C-alpha cells in the first residue's frame, strides 16, 4: 500500500509516519512551515531498512501541479491529510494561511483524488469544530459551531471533504480528535510550552482563570485510531477520537510542576485568549463500538512526555529561538503586562 501523509513532518504526522512505515510505502508531502521539522523524522530517514519505504517531498498541498506529480509518480492508494495551520493563538493574530491550507489545501487534495483512483482519503479534522461543550460530550451528529479562525477553517475542510463523498462518492472518512500530547509537539502548544518554560525557569502563562477543560489523548493512541479507521471505518462517516481525560488547565499545569519538582508560584495567570472555548468533550461510542479504545493512561503518558522533553533539550531549544521568540513576545508580553 502506498500512503500519502501530508504534514508528516509535524507533531502527529511524524508519529503516524513512524507507525505506518513499518508496513507501508510512506510518502510525505510537507511544506516545512515553522511547525514542520525534519528532525521529527530523523530516525526514519537514517534507518537504512525503513528509509527504503519512505519518500519525502517538500511542498505545499495548495500546489495542484505538485500534488498531481506526487499522486501520479507514487501511485498513491491512501491519503491521510494532517497538513494544516494548527495553532489557535496564531489564527487569532492572523488567519490568512489558515484559510489557504486548511480549506484551499483540502480542496486541492480532494480534486486530485477525483483525477487519480484512490482507495481511501482520511481528512484529519478536530473536536474544535463543535465549539464549546456547554452540556454533554459531543457526538458526531451534533451541529458544528466553530468559534475561532482555526476551528472555522478546519470546519471548512471537514465539510468540504464530506461534500466530496456525498457528491462524487470519493472514499472519504473524517476524524475529529481531542487535544493530543506527547513527544515532538511544538513548544507553542500548552503542554510543551509549560514543560519547557518550567525547565528553563520561566513563568507559565495560564490564560484567564485556568479552569478551561481539555480532553487529552496521547498522540500514539490517536495514531492507532487513525490506522484502525483506515481498516475498519466506513466511507462518508465521521469518527470522534478522544482520550477520555478531561482536565482543567490549572490541574495539568500543577501536575507538570509537581513532576518536575518546581514551585507552583511559576504559574502566572495572564490575559485570557480571545473567544476562548471553555470546554471540549467528545463522545467516542461510535469508534469504540467498532473495537478501538485508547491505551495510554494520562498521568503515565504525561510523565513520559515530560521525561522526553527533559532528555531532548536540543530538539526544543533549536525551535525556541529566532522566529519563535518574536512570536512569543507578540503573543505574551502584553498578556504578562496586563495580567488577568
Ligand atoms: P503541526 O502544526 O505540528 O504540524 C502541521 C504540519 O503541516 C507541519 O509539518 C507543517 O509544515 C505542515 N504544513 C502546514 N501547512 C502546509 C501546507 N500548506 N502544505 C503542506 N504541509 C503543510 O500539527 P499537529 O498538531 O501535528 O496537527 C496535525 C493535524 O491534526 C492537523 O490537521 C490538526 O488540525 C489536527 N489535529 C490536531 C490536534 C492536536 O491536538 N495537535 C487535535 C486534533 C486534530
Ligand atoms: O482540541 C483539538 C485542538 O487542540 C487541535 O485541533 C489544535 O490544533 C491544538 O492546537 C489544540 O488546540 P487548543 O487551543 O486546545 O490547544 P493549546 O495547546 O493551544 O491550548 C490548550 C489549553 O491551554 C487552552 O485552553 C488554552 C490554554 N493555554 C494555552 C497556551 C498556549 C494557556 O492557558 N496558556 C498558553 O500559553
From TrEMBL:
Its cofactor is NAD(+). Pfam families: GDP_Man_Dehyd (PF16363). It catalyses: dTDP-alpha-D-glucose = dTDP-4-dehydro-6-deoxy-alpha-D-glucose + H2O. GO terms for biological process: nucleotide-sugar metabolic process. Gene3D superfamilies: NAD(P)-binding Rossmann-like Domain, UDP-galactose 4-epimerase, domain 1. Keywords: Lyase, NAD. Its EC number is 4.2.1.46. It comes from the Bacteria. InterPro entries: dTDP_Gluc_deHydtase, NAD(P)-bd_dom, NAD(P)-bd_dom_sf. GO terms for molecular function: dTDP-glucose 4,6-dehydratase activity. Belongs to the NAD(P)-dependent epimerase/dehydratase family. dTDP-glucose dehydratase subfamily. This is dTDP-glucose 4,6-dehydratase. The gene is rmlb_1.
Amino acid at each position: 500500500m502506498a500512503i500519502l501523509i501530508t504534514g508528516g513532518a509535524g507533531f502527529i504526522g511524524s508519529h503516524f509516519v513512524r507507525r505506518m512505515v513499518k508496513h507501508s510505502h510512506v510518502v510525505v508531502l510537507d511544506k516545512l512551515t515553522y511547525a514542520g521539522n525534519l528532525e521529527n523524522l530523523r530516525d526514519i530517514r537514517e534507518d537504512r531498512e525503513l528509509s527504503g519505504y519512505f519518500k519525502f517531498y517538500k511542498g505545499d498541498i495548495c500546489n495542484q501541479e505538485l500534488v498531481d506529480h506526487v499522486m501520479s509518480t507514487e501511485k498513491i492508494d491512501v491519503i491521510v491529510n494532517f497538513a494544516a495551520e494548527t495553532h489557535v493563538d496564531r489564527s487569532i493574530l492572523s488567519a490568512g494561511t489558515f484559510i489557504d491550507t486548511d480549506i484551499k489545501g483540502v480542496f486541492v487534495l480532494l480534486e486530485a483524488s477525483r483525477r487519480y483512483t484512490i482507495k481511501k482519503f482520511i481528512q484529519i479534522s478536530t473536536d474544535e469544530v463543535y465549539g464549546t461543550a456547554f452540556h454533554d460530550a459531543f457526538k458526531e451528529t451534533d451541529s458544528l459551531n466553530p468559534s475561532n479562525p482555526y476551528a472555522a477553517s478546519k470546519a471548512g475542510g471537514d465539510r468540504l471533504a464530506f461534500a466530496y463523498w456525498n457528491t462524487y462518492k470519493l472514499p472519504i472518512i473524517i476524524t475529529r480528535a481531542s487535544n493530543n500530547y506527547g513527544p515532538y509537539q511544538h513548544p507553542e502548544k500548552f503542554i510543551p510550552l509549560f514543560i519547557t518554560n518550567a525547565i528553563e525557569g520561566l513563568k507559565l502563562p495560564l490564560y484567564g482563570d485556568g479552569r478551561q477543560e481539555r480532553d487529552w489523548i496521547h498522540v500514539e493512541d490517536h495514531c492507532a485510531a487513525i490506522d484502525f479507521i483506515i481498516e475498519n471505518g466506513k466511507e462518508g462517516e465521521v469518527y470522534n477520537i478522544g482520550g477520555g481525560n478531561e482536565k482543567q488547565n490549572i490541574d495539568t499545569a500543577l501536575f507538570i510542576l509537581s513532576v518536575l519538582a518546581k514551585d507552583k508560584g511559576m504559574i502566572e495567570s495572564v490575559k485570557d485568549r480571545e473567544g476562548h472555548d471553555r470546554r471540549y468533550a467528545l463522545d467516542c461510542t461510535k469508534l469504540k463500538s467498532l473495537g478501538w479504545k485508547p491505551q495510554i493512561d494520562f498521568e503515565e503518558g504525561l510523565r513520559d512526555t515530560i521525561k522526553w522533553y527533559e532528555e531532548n533539550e536540543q530538539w526544543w531549544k533549536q525551535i525556541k529561538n529566532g522566529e519563535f521568540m518574536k512570536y512569543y513576545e507578540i503573543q505574551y508580553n502584553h498578556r504578562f503586562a496586563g495580567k488577568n
